[in-house]
Specification:
This protein has a seven-stranded parallel β-sheet. Strands 1-2 form a two-stranded antiparallel sheet. The radius of gyration is 18 Å and the shape is globular. Helix 4 (about 140-155) links the parallel strand 6 and strand 7. Helix 1 crosses helix 2 (about 70-80). The chain has about 290 residues and is α/β, with parallel strands linked by helices. Helices cover about 40% and strands about 15% of the residues.
Length: about 290
């Protein structure tokens, strides 16, 4: 049903500004060391994955300067700078790392401004194509407006081209849109975790990209069994089935599965051409209820 050489373009693209982002992208978080802290186990392998992603045709990379911290952005710059004109390197702000490897919120004006400038410097770009504001412990609409307004100011200054929000409620998306245009929403969503079904559809109607993080995580044993049964019938992997379902779910869904392995990267890319027959879709659509 698919092959390792399939191009990400098989899944189509989604435009943010003047760039067409491949719907099958790449998330760089796993390139850092254990618990997203410190250098990678194999620096050459990490650089190879980044180069392989771009060489394969991926135009959407997801990162943050708090991965490592700083490590992943440094790797991206080393592997890919000067960047191809068609490449979008999306980043996140709103959290920081502490010596105990925690991820506390960093939503004050000073922290957000510093984070944007850290990303600019580490990635070595004059402006960031897409910055997602990651919220942490709150889903209240009022809590997103102040931090998002700070990023909107930096956008007006020309340091950011497009803004998104991450780990947010539907109410926070509406509140952010009252401050400035929202180009994408990045939330936890996959074939098993369907709490954002309505938000996915609403974003599609509004021309907003929806980027699921952890597209392959949080499955219960019965859900894993269903994925493996479908994968066995199609002659592909369960991981590819889960990614293919997301691509089929809505045209505004952009995927950023992460890996530190070129082999796994190729497996993920091949999911772009996995065709899900009706019988498979019926099984997968029911996975969230198992």
């Amino acid at each position: 049903m698919t092959s390792e050489t399939t191009a990400p373009a098989a899944a189509g693209s989604w435009k943010i500004g003047g760039l067409a982002l491949t719907r099958l992208g790449y998330g760089a978080m796993q390139l850092a060391g254990p618990k997203v802290w410190g250098p990678p186990r194999d620096r050459d392998a990490a650089l190879a994955v980044l180069r392989a992603a771009v060489e394969a045709g991926i135009t959407h990379l997801d990162t943050s300067d708090y991965y490592g911290p700083h490590v992943v952005n440094d790797l991206i710059r080393e592997a890919l700078h000067p960047y191809p004109e068609h490449l979008c390197v999306a980043t996140k702000v709103g959290a920081r790392r502490t010596p105990d490897r925690a991820w506390p919120a960093a939503l004050s004006r000073d922290e957000l401004v510093r984070a944007v400038h850290d990303n600019l410097r580490r990635l070595d770009v004059p402006a960031l194509h897409l910055v997602n504001l990651r919220m942490t412990d709150t889903r209240a609409a009022a809590d997103v407006t102040g931090p998002f307004a700070v990023l909107a100011e930096l956008r007006e200054q020309g340091l950011i081209r497009h803004l998104g929000v991450s780990n947010v409620s539907a109410e926070q998306v509406r509140a952010a849109r009252d401050v400035a245009p929202v180009a994408c929403v990045q939330n936890h969503y996959n074939v098993a975790l369907r709490g954002d079904d309505d938000l996915v559809d609403r974003c599609a109607e509004q021309g907003i990209a929806y980027v699921p993080y952890y597209p392959l995580g949080g499955f219960r044993p019965l859900q894993v069994d269903a994925l493996e049964d479908v994968a066995r019938d199609l002659g592909v992997t369960a991981r590819q089935v889960a990614l293919a379902w997301l691509l089929r779910r809505s045209p505004n869904i952009l995927l950023i599965p992460g890996t530190s392995s070129v082999a796994h990267l190729r497996e993920n890319i091949a999911a772009a051409s996995v065709e899900l027959p009706d019988r498979a879709l019926r099984v997968l659509d029911a996975v969230g209820t198992r």
